[in-house]
Design brief:
By secondary structure, the chain is α+β, with helices and mostly antiparallel strands. It folds into two domains: 4-78, Gcn5-related N-acetyltransferase (GNAT) (Aminopeptidase, 3-Layer(aba) Sandwich), CATH 3.40.630.30; 91-217, Nucleoside Triphosphate Pyrophosphohydrolase (Alpha-Beta Complex). It has helices spanning 23-36, 55-60, 129-141, 195-200, 206-217; strands at residues 4-6, 11-14, 42-48, 64-69, 72-78, 91-98, 100-101, 104-110, 120-122, 145-156, 164-174, 187-194. The strands form three sheets. Strands 1-2-3-5-4 form a five-stranded mixed beta sheet. β10 and β11 (164-174) form a beta hairpin.
Length: 239
Amino acid sequence: MMKTIEDRYDGVTVDNSTFPPSIDEFKEAIIHLTESLKGKRLLWVKIPTEKSDFIPILTRLDFEFHHCDEKSLTLIKKLAADAIVPTTKNYIVGVGAVVIDNGQLLVVKDRFSIGYKLPGGHIDKNESLKDALKREVYEETGVGVEFESIMNMGHFRNGQFGESNLYIVCTAKALTKEIVINDLSEIAEAKWMDLEEFLGSDDVNNYNKSVVGAARDNKTLKLTDRHIKLRISGGEVFF
């Protein structure tokens, strides 16, 4: 018999460690469970890769895809017509770095567009913002940096994979100066560029110009990380 875990929102999640071994037994167990649940609004089932043969059984029973990771797919079934399904992630988070040293700005040029831009990229799964900033700058330029502050956030709809793109621009202090491109598959050039030349270039997009100009002019406009006790471990807060 499959076991379930209830949540505070009148939902039920199947414990996938109690899945029956065969497809036929799984189908019978899911049908029985669905019919027996009273007063519940949502039924969640997380299918690991090794049990992917079970997925068609669920879709034929009106389960819908909700979210996935590298090793599992979670499906959901409404048990009440007016049940509200919580939105899974609908955005990709990126980080960019404004690194200014003696009037020189650290910039990169990728292989897919014209003009120079700020180094940066996606925050990896379970990676902190500050670690992502240091990693991306190092991969693209070879320069070691230290996080200083958050100075800008942009939200762009219709981004990669059809998701929104949340882009956080940070100022960072250069700890080294030598340029060594480690990500040669993406980055064609990295260099220290005169700040005013960057701001005056027709090939630099307006967003990059605006955030670099703000970093130059608004010395007090920044959010710094605060070390406070949080209920959830691994969090970062900035104010």
